[in-house]
Write a structure and sequence with these properties.
heterodimer, A: alpha/beta, B: MetI-like fold
Chain lengths: ~220, ~230
């Protein structure tokens, strides 16, 4: 369960959002500039709220009143960025292995195989990120986040930098991820069609405020 | 042109030793300073930045003289070092290395700083979300990506150190076998009758070393660009 109740001022923009989510995929839906990325950045711990609480299951990650702020590297929250952000000096295999190494986890060949099969990236392991297509890069980024064994996966417009053809190519992987990976996700997008396909619960953001909360039907309104 | 004499070899090898030691010792300080200047804003930053670049614009004889005042046998710091730790720089090859290190420092720091500034910080954020503590982010992402810049800085610093003359001769003089490096050997030779041929040999060697260093530096800079583009 993810519980968020935060406010933050970013220049002229004021974000003030509260929601609780139990769904397998929480969709953060809103136009660009609605505050989606800032909100996800706060859940990841990359941004600190000015006021409020963020809790995952029964662990409090941020509580400004009690001065709690768990730094990002101790949250075990995976983050897939719109621009993939693969490490350019490592090949795909090293990128995939990074989270496991940093968390001091034992090698898990079975999970490694499951993830590379699920995302169809087994044939890319020797390549450098510069030699991958946009879609391949995004799949590797997904795999890298999954293999760090996160408790929650944040997907910030993972299709945002891809053209229509590529989106259609990646979307089935995301559906498989939702159904097979067994990690709760927060999926950020401004695309209602993606939301309908993936999200089990939707948080609608507008101008830094939550304007609607619920199932796919809130997209209609 | 005849063979290189043992005396010339001594100067060449001493130059190489002085420049290598100066570069290796200066590099960790160079990285730390480059990091500080690239990543942090603090009061007095522009003053520190100017101070680091001073050896580039001051007459080298001034830098050498200041070193002598500070670190000479009776210098402010030099006297204390000699009395308490037995470390003496004046008129020793270690002093030559120190002078070269100081003179080449701005050239060492600059490429490192530029390469750290060029690193996409969002990669560091990605690393932290994957569980890397800040020092691990530095070790696995920032430093490896800055490595070509670090190597380029080291090559440039080395080239400067091996060509240093003014500060070195002022601080540690021109003692054959102890502080006489290639440049001070050339200086002595062109003031000696019949020294022209020997001077010319050393001049050619200087040109070869400097050119090789510049080519190496270019190559590292190109590698840096490729690395940052993920090829």
């Amino acid at each position: 369960m993810l519980r968020v109740d935060v406010s933050k001022k970013l220049g002229e923009f004021a974000l003030e959002a509260a929601f609780t989510s139990e769904g397998r995929v929480t969709g953060l839906f809103g136009a660009s500039g609605a505050g989606k990325t800032s909100l996800v950045g706060m859940i990841a711990g990359l941004l600190r709220p000015d006021r409020g609480v963020i809790a995952l299951d029964d662990e409090v990650l941020d509580d400004t009143e009690k001065g709690v702020h768990v730094p990002p590297h101790r949250r075990r929250i995976g983050y897939v960025f719109q621009d993939a952000r693969l490490f350019p000096h490592m090949n795909v295999a090293q990128n995939l292995d990074y989270g496991r190494r940093m968390n001091g986890l034992d090698a898990d060949a079975a999970q490694h195989k499951r993830v590379t099969d699920l995302l169809d990236i087994g044939h890319l392991l020797d390549r450098r990120p510069g030699k991958l297509s946009g879609g391949e890069r995004q799949r590797v980024a997904l795999g890298r986040a999954l293999l760090s064994k996160p408790r929650l996966l944040l997907l910030d417009e993972p299709l945002g930098s891809l053209d229509e053809g590529r989106k259609v190519e990646i979307l089935p992987y995301l559906v498989r991820l939702r159904d097979e990976a067994n990690v709760p996700m927060v999926y950020v997008s401004h695309d209602a069609a993606e939301m309908r396909q993936l999200a089990t619960q939707i948080v609608m953001l507008r101008g830094g405020r939550v304007t609607a909360l619920g199932g796919a039907k809130v997209l209609a309104g | 042109m005849s063979e290189i004499t043992p005396a010339e070899w001594t100067a060449i090898l001493l130059s190489l030793r002085v420049a290598v030691i100066a570069t290796l010792v200066a590099t960790p300080f160079g990285i730390a300073l480059a990091w500080l200047l690239a990543r942090h804003d603090f009061w007095g930053k522009s003053v520190l930045d100017a101070f680091v670049h001073l050896p580039l614009v001051l007459p080298p004889v001034v830098t050498g003289y200041l070193l002598l005042l500070l670190l000479g046998r009776r210098g402010l710091i030099g006297a204390w070092l000699a009395d308490h730790l037995g470390i003496v720089f004046a008129f020793r090859w270690t002093g030559a290395a120190l002078a070269c290190g100081v003179m080449s420092f701005p050239l060492l720091v600059r490429p490192i700083r530029l390469s750290i500034e060029a690193i996409d910080r969002s990669l560091e954020q990605a690393a932290s979300t994957l569980g890397a503590a800040p020092w691990k982010v530095s070790a696995t992402v920032t430093l490896p990506l800055a490595l070509p810049g670090i190597l380029a800085g080291m090559v440039l610093g080395f080239a400067k150190a091996i060509g240093e003359f003014g500060a070195t001769i002022t601080f540690v003089s021109n003692i054959a076998g102890e502080t006489q490096v290639i440049s001070s050997a050339i200086y002595s030779l062109i003031q000696t009758p019949d020294g022209d041929a020997a001077a010319m040999r050393l001049v050619i060697i200087s040109i070869v070393i400097a050119t090789a260093a510049l080519i190496a530096s270019e190559w590292f800079a190109r590698r840096a660009t490729q690395r940052l583009h993920g090829n």
